[in-house]
Design a protein that fits this description.
Layout (H helix, E strand, L loop, with lengths): L1 H43 E12 L3 E6 L3 E7 L5 E2 L2 E2 L3 E6 L2 E6 L3 E11 L6 E5 L3 E4 L8 E5 L3 E5 L1 E3 L2 E6 L2 E6 L3 E3 L5 E4 L1 E3 L10 E3 H13 L3 E2 L2 H8 L5 E2 L2 E8 L2 H14 L3 E5 L24 H6 L4 E5 L21 H14 L5 E3 L7 H9 L4 E7 L11 E5 L6 H8 L7
Parallel strand pairs: 17-22, 17-27, 18-19, 20-22, 22-23, 23-24, 25-26, 26-27
Antiparallel strand pairs: 1-4, 1-8, 2-3, 2-7, 3-11, 5-6, 6-7, 9-12, 9-16, 10-11, 12-21, 13-14, 14-15
Helix pairs in contact: 2-4, 2-8, 6-7
Keywords: Membrane, Signal, Transmembrane, Transmembrane helix
Organism: Sporosarcina psychrophila
InterPro entries: Glyco_hydro/deAcase_b/a-brl, NODB_dom, Polysacch_Deacetylase
Length: 423
């Protein structure tokens, strides 16, 4: 009995020893994971003292400024946020890289220590499908910092497991992935020639007036807002919260047919559009022109640029680089040096001095072309690659969607609604 008892005691001790070793290993591994997560979090978020921190006593709307104030969220009471300035009526704080505004009222401004983001990424934006809570931690049980409005695209700076992260008043805010949709990007339409269907001789780079009217009618009926090149740039840089129903309408070449047929439709709906001008062609005619659909291509004159400025924002499309090399079939700009391209762009921009964007002729460009565009002061380069304008690519390689008679109305709807995908 003693031997059996001794053996039994030994076995029990051995089991206890093995279990304790396992427990220690699990604890060490767990601590290692926590430590690693802690180090990662430490690199992303730190504590910092801010001289001016706002804490509102009651929930307050947050606005962005455009033509008018637009409410984009509500700041929760007792949630401190760093402010960057103020005027007589509003405190200013940052949402992403954008200045947002909180009306002055019952609030405290003091020096305070806050958690703040030390490293952000050029990431993306998210769609809010309903009013959406932003939490102070990656935990649905944590306090809510603010509530975002429904129907907007908000810039995010980071993604962690089940959460997207934005910054508000220098603090990180956590959005549950289940409560929002990732933003594919802004739809950017590009047109060239617009003609009545009976006058069309080709469908290449041409859309019928009837199809164009149907498309613009759809945008109006579904309450789309047309954006400017400046607004696109701010969206790409995280400096603008954009409505879900937003689109850019662009035209290339400055063709007279777009004055004759597209301009009245756009003006009817109160839409704005970009018109990329080949400025060496604006002197081919003087003053008012009689449009002739049967003759050679006709282009805007300098007088047209003044007359149509209530609808069109005039942009760059080179001075005289809009031609193809007869041997290679590629744009002649590909054979030019950076200095030659820069000289051409400067001549182009003399006629369109407010230009923010450049459409590459035939969509052809090189690193030298991009470098020349930057030096010329252009902020956006439009390609002919089909897709959405988003933060995944350079601002000088922005995608568009060529809308011609070859494409169906259903394809147009899928694109502007953000439902189109490419291989």
């Amino acid at each position: 009995m003693r031997k059996i008892s001794s053996k039994l005691s030994f076995v029990v001790c051995l089991i206890v020893f093995i279990m304790s070793i396992g427990a220690i290993w699990i604890l060490v591994e767990s601590q290692g994971r926590v430590f690693a997560q802690g180090k990662e979090a430490e690199r992303f978020v730190t504590k910092r003292v801010f001289e001016r921190v706002l804490t509102v006593q009651e929930r307050q709307p947050i606005y962005m400024k455009g033509a008018a104030l637009t409410q984009i969220g509500e700041l929760e009471a007792d949630q401190p946020v760093a402010i960057t300035g103020e005027d007589e009526a509003y405190y200013e704080l940052r949402l992403g890289n954008m200045t947002a505004f909180v009306r002055k009222g019952q609030a405290m401004v003091e020096k305070k220590r806050l958690s703040t983001v030390v490293h952000t990424e050029r990431l993306a934006a998210v769609h809010t499908l309903q009013k959406t809570a932003v939490y102070e931690d990656a935990d649905l049980q944590s306090s809510v910092i603010l509530e975002l409005e429904e129907g907007f695209r908000y810039p995010i700076v980071r993604e962690e497991e089940d959460w997207y992260i934005l910054t508000i008043g220098e603090r990180p805010g956590y959005i549950s992935k289940q409560s929002v949709a990732m933003d594919a990007g802004l739809p950017v339409l590009v047109y060239h020639q617009v003609l009545p269907r009976e006058s069309m001789r080709t469908m290449d780079s041409t859309i019928s007036l009837e199809a164009f009217e149907q498309q613009m009618g759809y945008l109006a009926d579904h309450h789309f807002e047309t954006l400017t090149a400046h607004q696109l740039y701010d969206y790409l840089e995280g400096r603008l919260v954009v409505p879900s129903k937003a689109v850019l309408i662009t035209f290339d070449d400055g063709l007279l047919s777009t004055k004759e047929y597209a301009y009245p439709v756009l003006k009817q709906y109160g839409f704005r559009a970009l018109q990329h001008i080949i400025s060496s062609r604006t002197d081919r005619a003087q003053g008012a022109q009689l449009f002739d659909a049967e003759g050679p291509l006709q282009f805007f004159t300098a007088a047209d640029l003044e007359e149509l400025a209530d609808v069109f924002q005039f942009e760059a499309h080179t001075y005289e680089l809009h031609s193809l090399n007869k041997v290679s079939g590629e744009g002649i700009a590909l054979d030019r040096s950076k200095e030659e391209i820069l000289l051409d762009l400067r001549q182009n921009i003399e006629q369109v001095p407010a230009a923010v964007s450049l459409a590459y002729p035939y969509g052809h460009y090189t690193e030298d072309f991009i470098a020349a565009a930057k030096e010329a002061g252009v902020l956006i380069g439009f390609t002919t690659t089909e897709g959405y304008a988003n933060r995944k690519t350079s601002n000088y390689e922005v995608c568009r969607y060529g809308s011609t008679e070859k494409k169906s109305f259903e394809q147009f709807v899928a694109y502007v609604e953000g439902d189109m995908t490419w291989p």
